[in-house]
Amino acid sequence: MPEFNSRRWAVILVFWLISCQFIIAQDTSETPPEVGTTQKVGDVILFALPAATLGTTFIIGDKKGTWQFTKGLLLTEAVTFGLKFGINKRRPDMSNDNSFPSGHTSTVFHSAGFIHRHYGFKYSIPAYALAGFTAASRIDSKKHDILDVLAGAAIGLGSNLLFTTEYQQEHMELTFSSGDGQYLLGYTYKF
């Protein structure tokens, strides 16, 4: 039987949280049969973007990034659901009182913000596009208004400020430069 260390438990917990978001999004008791394609695509992105982000940290062996993403997502979900159930704002479609803030938006913007802060802006452009589409889909489906999605985006992006650092693939760097008969040898170690 495989050994379950804290990292594995964290990963299991993150996948469980992402799955719960997906299940909540698919709740047929609150979703009319005429749900549009835009909302369905937004619901898929809710699951796919965090899963792809976390999966990427595994594929490249970025253990530090895996843990940073996990902590940020846990904080994002805790703040989002704490506010949802504490504020009880009525959704624009009147389906329930869980409008503020948008959970879909906070989750996908956490993923996009993590990619931006950890791996760099150029890698985050597609993630931001998907996150923006998801936010728009929540407004289009009348699940949220603009304030709900802006608050969700702020929560998702903000959690990265606490936990996410820049990815450091190379820990050692040796540099050499010369000019005017002078030579400079440099050594840098990042940890």
Brief summary:
This protein is mostly helical. The chain has helices spanning 6-25, 37-59, 63-87, 103-119, 121-140, 146-163; strands at 172-179, 182-189.
Q: What features would you describe in this structure?
A:
With 191 residues, this protein is mainly alpha-helical. It has one domain: Vanadium-containing Chloroperoxidase, domain 1 (Up-down Bundle). The protein is 64% helix and 8% strand. It is built from 6 helices and 2 strands. It has helices spanning 6-25, 37-59, 63-87, 103-119, 121-140, 146-163, and strands spanning 172-179, 182-189. The protein has a two-stranded antiparallel sheet. α2 (37-59) packs parallel to α4. The mean pLDDT is 84. InterPro entries: PAP2/HPO, PAP2/HPO_sf. Residues 93-164 form the Phosphatidic acid phosphatase type 2/haloperoxidase domain. The chain crosses the membrane at residues 41-61.
Task: Count the DSSP helices.
Answer: 6
Helix content: 55-70%
Globular, elongated, flat, extended or rod-shaped: what is the shape? elongated
* Biggest sheet descriptor: 2 strands, antiparallel
The Rg value, from CA coordinates, equals 20 Å
Number of domains: 1
Taking the alpha carbons of the first and last residues, their distance comes to 34 Å
Low-confidence stretches: none
CATH topology: Vanadium-containing Chloroperoxidase, domain 1
Q: What is the class in the CATH system?
A: Mainly Alpha
DSSP strand content: 5-15%
Organism: Christiangramia gaetbulicola
Keywords: Membrane, Transmembrane, Transmembrane helix
Domain Phosphatidic acid phosphatase type 2/haloperoxidase: 93-164
Protein name: PAP2 superfamily protein
